[in-house]
Design brief:
alpha/beta; binds magnesium ion; 6-stranded mixed sheet; binds adenosine-5'-diphosphate; 13 helices; 4-stranded antiparallel sheet
């Protein structure tokens, strides 16, 4: 089990991770989903003990990553965003070397390396120099290194970034295979990547954890409304009168369609649980108005992801604006300081400009 409590990481004045807390249970595939710069890699680097947090705690199977780093790290295999591969080594040499670093007992190293070579399908490449492998195969070597010794928890930072579609499918399949005996955590800025393999999604935006749930629950939890679009042959008043008779229709709009003669576009919102498709069919038929097309937009995970992350962006922009406003207010209301009084006593701007010119020339002469 992994417990992350109030994790915060500050770089200078920039808060990269802002008070994030979550608990991950064994056996699941978790996905960290968020736009670039959201704080995914920073969180993973702290969870794996690569960097220290500014505040907060990470506990891996009861071991605090700061107090008992050896015990905590022994439970984790990590594929960082930029895997530290040694280009001048062969695949097998590198994995042997990684086995030593991981302190796998000497008698077991050979078998452990063999196991991950099989798992990541690198048999034919074991004697190749890493430098000569394609990006997809390099990524397999990185993955092999992460699962070497079969740690309980496997953490993969953007494991499919930069790969072609076929390589992405191969890596996905490997991750799915791994998930059978391990807890897997992977990150991506692409929703499809996460929803294809993960059974639990943590959405991170601007350093905040904005949602954490199964994909199905996220859809249920965050969507109250869906949208419908119709093309109906009839006039605006005729169509409006039909819509008025149907319950549950929100914010209807009826406009002329310029492509289909004598037809109108109809748009409205609807409670996500309500289904009015058949009611619409009968109501329009009753008034002799044929429905030419009907589209039911069910909200997708993509909509929720976009909404949650853009909300967080908006909040961040508002906070920055508010901070600027506060600074300006402070300046405005501060009683004139000593410097300001001196400033007022000084000659006018134009005059000052002349003076600086003179000064500059003086300075240049001095230097020469
Ligand atoms: P993600 O992996 O979600 O793309 P990161 O965790 O890499 O995001 O970065 C989060 C934020 O922290 C970004 O704004 C990034 O610029 C900043 N950041 C990351 N590492 C450093 C660093 N070493 N020094 C300063 N800022 C950093
Ligand atoms: Mg990253």
């Amino acid at each position: 089990m992994i417990e992350v409590k109030n994790l915060t990481k500050v770089y200078g004045s920039h808060v990269a991770v802002d008070d994030i807390s979550f608990t991950l249970e064994p056996g699941n595939i978790y996905g960290f989903l968020g736009p670039n710069g959201a704080g995914k890699s920073t969180t993973m680097n702290i969870m794996t003990g690569y960097i220290a947090a500014t505040s907060g705690e990470v506990i891996i199977n009861g071991h605090n990553i700061l107090d008992e780093p050896e015990e905590a790290k022994a439970c984790i295999g990590y594929l960082p965003e930029l895997p530290p591969l040694y280009m001048e080594m062969t695949v097998e040499e590198y994995l042997r070397f990684a086995a030593k670093l991981k302190k796998i007992p000497k008698s077991k190293q050979k078998d452990a390396v063999e196991e991950v070579i099989q798992l990541t399908k690198l048999e034919e490449y074991r004697r190749r120099l890493i430098a000569n492998l394609s990006k997809g195969y390099k990524q397999r070597v990185g993955l092999a290194q992460a699962v070497l010794g079969m740690p309980e928890i496997i953490i993969l930072d953007e494991p499919t970034v930069g790969l072609d579609p076929r390589q992405i499918i191969e890596i996905r399949d490997m991750i799915k295979t791994l998930s059978k005996g391990h807890t897997v955590i992977l990150s991506s800025h692409i929703l499809q990547e996460i929803s294809a393999v993960c059974d639990h999604i943590l959405i991170i935006a601007r350093g905040h954890l904005v949602a954490s749930d199964t994909p199905e629950n996220l859809i249920k939890q965050y969507t109250q409304e869906k949208q419908m679009k119709l093309l109906v042959r009839g006039s605006i008043p005729e169509v409006k009168s039909v819509l008025n008779r149907i319950e549950g229709i929100l914010e209807p709009s009826v406009t002329v369609n310029f492509l289909e003669e004598g037809a109108v576009d109809v748009q409205f919102k609807l409670d996500v649980q309500t289904d009015v498709r058949e009611t619409l069919f009968h109501a329009f038929a009753e008034d002799g108005l044929p429905i030419l097309s009907m589209i039911n937009y069910e909200p997708t995970l993509e909509d929720i992801f976009m909404e949650l992350t853009s909300l967080e962006e908006q909040r961040a922009i508002e906070q920055e604006e508010e901070a600027v406003r506060q600074r300006m207010l402070k300046k405005q209301w501060k009683s004139p300081s000593k410097e300001q009084k001196q400033e007022e006593a000084r000659p006018s701007k134009e005059h000052r400009a002349d003076m600086t010119e003179e000064k500059k020339e003086d300075g240049e002469e001095e230097q020469a």
